[in-house]
Amino acid sequence: MLDNKPAESSDSDNPVERVFSAGTPAELIEPFEDRFSLQVVEGYSLTEDTMLVLNPVDKSKRRIGSVGLPPAEKRIQIVDKDGNPVPQGTRGEIVMDCPAIMKGYYRQPEKTAEAIQDGWFHTGDYGRIDEDGFVYFLDRKKDIVRRGGENISSFEVEGVIKALDAVDEVAVVPTPDEYYTEVVTALVKVKDGYEITETDVINQCEQHLSHFKIPRYVSFVRLFPYTPTGKIQKQQLREKEREDDITHWDRKN
């Protein structure tokens, strides 16, 4: 929210030394630190597991773009769709085991059995682990766009578009497609006082993304639906994309 406000000369005049964040696009972290004269510490946690994964506070040891290292009491693995560990650096689902993980969902034994398998909690998040053990969050499984044989991270595409100065918020969702099954749609909210075109969004994506990840459709929105905690309700947006009468700007037209 602070990053979306117009810059002021007094931005760095504040008592804050550190802010903790999760899922911030890597390219936004250092500009935010410079603007507000503070440090952003990236981390990762869940309601079901309160033991944080954190990037080192020592800037010389942190990895921008990573959510950090797990504490000694926590084991983290990346697994494939069958629950088998994948090679280092390979994308898969984040699973974890530690003393802070919940016992189960209240009066929901089936949901609990689905989430906790052989002692490992399945987060429903995609990620990877590098050679030094740093964990990288890639996307929620349910937010992946499945275009043909490719799985596209909505989080990655959103980060690229969000780096544009004129963009306030963005949500990337799948739109049904006869040939690819799903294609990428970018819903963009523009900051007050700024102007931007659909072509500007596509040009930004072409500079930073592989061709198959570039949105097929772009639409500008005035307001997103939000959860009580202020997150964009992507489920509602995904459902709307299935409506026959919805129209977007199409980069192929």
Automatic annotation (TrEMBL):
It comes from the Archaea. Residues 1-21, 234-253 are annotated as: Disordered. Residues 21-106 form the AMP-dependent synthetase/ligase domain. Keywords: Ligase. Residues 236-253 have a biased composition (Basic and acidic residues). One of its GO terms (biological process) is fatty acid metabolic process. Residues 156-231 form the AMP-binding enzyme C-terminal domain. InterPro entries: AMP-bd_C, AMP-bd_C_sf, AMP-dep_synth/lig_dom, ANL_N_sf. GO terms for molecular function: medium-chain fatty acid-CoA ligase activity. It holds the Pfam family AMP-binding_C. Belongs to the ATP-dependent AMP-binding enzyme family. PANTHER family: ACYL-COA SYNTHETASE, MEDIUM-CHAIN ACYL-COA LIGASE ACSF2, MITOCHONDRIAL. This is AMP-dependent synthetase/ligase. The lineage of its organism: Archaea, Methanobacteriati, Methanobacteriota, Stenosarchaea group, Halobacteria.
